[in-house]
C-alpha cells in the first residue's frame, strides 16, 4: 500500500516577485481540508534576514558575492539543525535580482542537496507583470530597494529554473523530480503531486486560434478550452492521482498585444504607460477553471499602470519564453491531453500543438487527443495521425491515440 505523503522534503524555488509565502499558505489551508499538512519555512524571512550581520536586505544584496555566500552558508548551517521528520516545504530564492545590482546567486547547492535532500523541487513562476507589480509595491518608489525591470525579472525567472535543474542533477535521491509550475495552475494539481505523487498531464490546445475567433465575435472555441479545464479540475478533485497543468497558467502575450501600438517608434510622444489588469486582461483564470478560488495564487483584480518602455524592452523575452516554457512543460509530463488541435474552418494543426506533439513522441510520452467532429468532418487530424498500415505502427502512431469524447480525453490514464 502506498505511503503518504510521498514527498517529505519539498524545495519551493521562486524568483523575486513570485509570492511563495502566499502560495504556501493557500496550499497549506487547502491540504488541511484534505487531512494533510506540512511545515513551511521561508528561508530568507525566517532565517537569513534575521542574521545579525545582515544589517538590512539592501546591505546584504550590495555585499561582495563571496561575502554573501559566506553569510548564506553560515545561516544555512544553523538552519539545518532545525530539520526534523516533519513534511517540510522550504521556500527560498536560488537567485536574487535587484535593479541596481543585477542578478546574484549566493546559494550553496551541495548543502541544499545533502542537508535538505529534496525529493520534489518546484520552480514556482508567475506572469512577469504580476512579479513587477509586487516588487514595485514593496519598493514604494525607493530606488535603493531594488525595483528590478521586466527584463531583469525575466532573466531571474530563467536563472531560477536553471538552478532548480542543477539542484536536481546533484540530488542524492535519483528519484527526485523538478516541476515547473505557474501560480495560475490549481491548488488541487499541486497538492495531488505533493501528497499522492500524481503524474502530471499537460493540457495541450491552440491558444492564438481561439483568441482570433473571439476577436471576430465567435466565443465557441474559448468556451471549449474553458470547459476542458473545468472537467480537468473536477477529475483532479475526484481522483487524487491526477494532476493537470495548463500553459495558460502563464499568459503574458496579451500585455504585449495591448501595448503594441504604444511601443511602435512612430508613436513617440504618446503614452508612457499602459493600464493593465492582471486578472481580466489575460485569459481569465476564474473562467478557465470555473472556480475563482482554484489557482495557487489569485491574480490582483485591479488596474495598474506599467511602463511602456519596459514592456517594449522585454517583449522579445516574453515571446521566446512561450516556446521554451511549453516545451519544458511537455518534457516534465507523463502524458498529453490534446484538445482540438485543428481549429474550425482550417485544415491545419496549429503550430504550437504540433510542436508539443513532436516533442512528446520523441521522448516516448503518450498523447491522447479529441477533435470536435463538426470542426473536422473529413477527419483531417485522424488522417494526419492515421492508424497502422500493413507495415505496422510508426513511431508517431504508437504514441498518439484518438478518443471519442472530451470526457474520455480528460479521464484517459497517464
**Reading side by side through the largest sheet, how are the strands ordered?**
2-3-1-6-7
Q: What is the count of helical runs? A: 17
| Poorly predicted ranges | none
Query: Span between N and C termini?
Result: 20 Å
Mean residue pLDDT: 92
Structural class: alpha/beta
Number of strands: 14
Outline the biggest β-sheet.
Answer: 5 strands, parallel
Proportion in β-strands: 5-15%
Tell me, what's the shape?
A: globular
What is the alpha-carbon Rg in Å? 22 Å
Proportion of residues in helical segments: 40-55%
Structure characteristics:
five-stranded parallel sheet, 414 residues, 17 helices, 14 strands
Word description of this protein:
The chain is of the alpha/beta class and 414 residues long. Helix content is 44%, strand content 15%. The chain has 17 helices and 14 strands. The strands form 4 sheets. The protein has a 5-stranded parallel β-sheet with strand order 2-3-1-6-7, with helices on both faces. It has a 5-stranded parallel β-sheet with strand order 9-8-12-13-14, sandwiched between helices. Helix 14 (351-362) links the parallel strand 12 (335-339) and strand 13 (367-370). Helix 9 packs across helix 10, helix 11 packs antiparallel against helix 13 (308-331) and helix 13 runs parallel beside helix 14. It starts with 8 loop residues before the first strand and ends with a helix.
Amino acid at each position: 500500500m502506498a505511503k503518504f505523503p510521498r514527498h517529505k522534503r519539498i524545495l519551493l524555488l521562486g524568483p523575486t516577485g513570485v509570492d511563495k509565502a502566499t502560495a504556501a499558505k493557500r496550499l497549506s489551508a487547502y491540504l488541511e481540508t484534505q487531512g494533510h499538512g506540512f511545515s513551511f519555512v521561508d528561508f530568507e524571512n525566517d532565517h537569513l534576514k534575521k542574521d545579525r550581520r545582515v544589517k538590512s536586505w539592501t546591505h546584504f544584496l550590495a555585499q561582495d558575492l563571496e561575502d554573501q555566500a559566506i553569510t548564506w552558508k553560515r545561516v544555512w548551517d544553523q538552519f539545518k539543525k532545525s530539520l526534523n521528520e516533519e513534511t517540510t516545504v522550504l521556500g527560498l530564492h536560488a537567485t536574487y535580482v535587484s535593479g541596481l545590482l543585477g542578478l546574484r546567486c549566493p546559494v550553496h547547492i551541495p548543502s541544499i542537496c545533502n542537508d535538505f535532500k529534496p525529493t520534489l523541487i518546484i520552480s514556482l513562476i508567475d506572469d512577469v507583470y504580476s512579479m513587477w507589480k509586487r516588487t514595485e509595491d514593496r519598493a514604494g518608489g525607493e530606488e535603493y530597494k531594488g525595483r528590478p525591470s521586466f527584463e531583469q525579472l525575466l532573466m531571474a525567472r530563467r536563472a531560477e529554473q536553471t538552478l532548480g535543474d542543477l539542484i536536481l542533477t546533484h540530488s542524492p535521491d535519483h528519484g527526485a523530480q523538478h516541476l515547473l509550475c505557474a501560480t495560475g495552475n490549481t491548488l488541487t494539481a499541486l497538492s495531488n503531486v505533493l501528497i499522492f505523487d500524481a503524474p502530471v498531464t499537460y493540457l495541450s490546445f491552440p491558444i492564438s486560434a481561439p483568441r482570433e475567433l473571439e476577436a471576430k465575435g465567435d466565443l465557441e472555441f474559448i468556451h471549449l478550452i474553458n470547459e476542458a479545464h473545468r472537467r480537468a479540475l473536477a477529475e483532479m478533485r475526484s481522483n487524487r492521482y491526477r494532476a493537470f497543468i495548463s500553459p495558460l497558467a502563464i499568459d503574458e502575450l496579451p500585455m504585449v498585444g495591448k501595448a503594441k501600438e504604444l511601443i511602435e517608434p512612430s508613436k513617440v510622444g504618446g503614452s508612457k504607460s499602459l493600464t493593465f489588469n492582471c486578472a481580466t486582461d489575460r485569459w481569465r483564470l476564474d473562467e478557465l477553471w470555473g472556480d475563482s478560488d482554484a489557482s495557487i495564487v489569485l491574480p490582483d483584480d485591479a488596474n495598474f499602470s506599467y511602463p511602456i518602455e519596459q514592456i517594449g524592452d522585454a517583449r522579445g523575452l516574453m515571446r521566446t519564453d512561450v516556446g521554451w516554457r511549453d516545451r519544458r512543460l511537455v518534457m516534465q509530463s507523463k502524458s498529453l491531453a490534446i484538445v482540438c488541435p485543428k481549429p474550425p474552418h482550417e485544415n491545419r494543426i496549429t503550430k504550437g500543438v504540433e510542436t508539443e506533439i513532436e516533442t512528446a513522441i520523441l521522448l516516448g510520452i503518450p498523447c491522447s487527443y479529441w477533435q470536435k467532429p463538426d470542426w473536422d468532418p473529413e477527419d483531417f487530424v485522424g488522417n494526419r495521425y492515421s492508424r497502422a498500415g500493413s507495415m505496422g505502427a510508426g513511431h508517431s502512431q504508437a504514441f498518439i491515440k484518438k478518443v471519442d469524447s472530451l470526457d474520455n480525453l480528460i479521464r484517459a490514464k497517464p
